[in-house]
Design brief:
- Helix content is about 30%, strand content about 35%.
- The protein has about 180 residues and is of the alpha+beta class.
- It has one domain: START domain (Alpha-D-Glucose-1,6-Bisphosphate, Chain A, domain 4).
- A 7-stranded antiparallel sheet has the order 1-2-7-6-5-4-3.
- A hairpin with a 2-residue loop joins strand 5 and strand 6.
- Helix 4 packs across helix 5.
- The protein is globular, with a radius of gyration of 16 Å.
């Protein structure tokens, strides 16, 4: 399975990962603040349709690496993104609005389905500003790898040491697909 995200249309990217855990366990890593905080961002979700979401991005909680200077404040103090749940079908679908970057309100959808004793996770992030596509794609790429590490019980792979190269790679990949499809 290709770990790279695929551009679906302007402003939308999708990732597919086959995760080494049953659907119910992966679901807890999406909905439980403490578990989500080990690979993405902590924060309480009001788990119901229309419920508020709070994502507190504090990368010092997900990687032992020192951040680049431009991210030092966010790394140490955190960045809060609020949204609302737009789909809630436990334990298979969780979607919510996302506020951050150049996006006044994009939407993230996680879809989970069992596959060969594991979980197929399909993550789709829509309504992205063109200026945010590579940044968001690189971020999801690294964060999903950290989720895999958590589920496998492995030490977390690097975040800061990988993010710039992945953003550059996504910029190149996206430039090569412009005008196609």
């Amino acid at each position: 399975m290709n770990e790279y995200g695929v551009v679906l249309e302007s402003g939308a990217i999708r990732f597919e990962r086959l995760l080494p855990a049953p659907v119910e366990r992966v679901w807890t890593y999406l909905t439980d603040s403490e578990k989500r905080g080990t690979w993405l961002a902590s924060g309480v979700f009001d788990l119901r349709l229309g419920g508020e979401t709070n994502l507190l991005f504090k990368h010092s909680q997900i990687t032992p690496e020192e951040p680049p200077e431009k991210y030092r404040d966010m790394n140490e103090n955190g960045f809060l993104s609020k949204g609302a749940i737009t789909r809630y079908e436990p334990p298979h679908v969780l979607a919510f609005t996302w506020h951050g970057g150049d996006n006044p309100s994009s939407e993230v959808t996680f879809e989970l389905s069992p596959k060969d004793g594991k979980t197929l996770l399909v993550l789709t992030h829509r309504k992205l500003a063109a200026t945010d596509m590579s940044n968001v794609a690189g971020g999801w790429h690294v964060h999903l790898g950290l989720l895999e590490d958590q589920l496998e019980g492995n030490p977390p792979r690097g975040f800061w040491s990988r993010i710039d190269a992945l953003e550059a790679e996504y910029t190149a990949r996206m430039a090569n697909t412009e005008g196609q499809g």
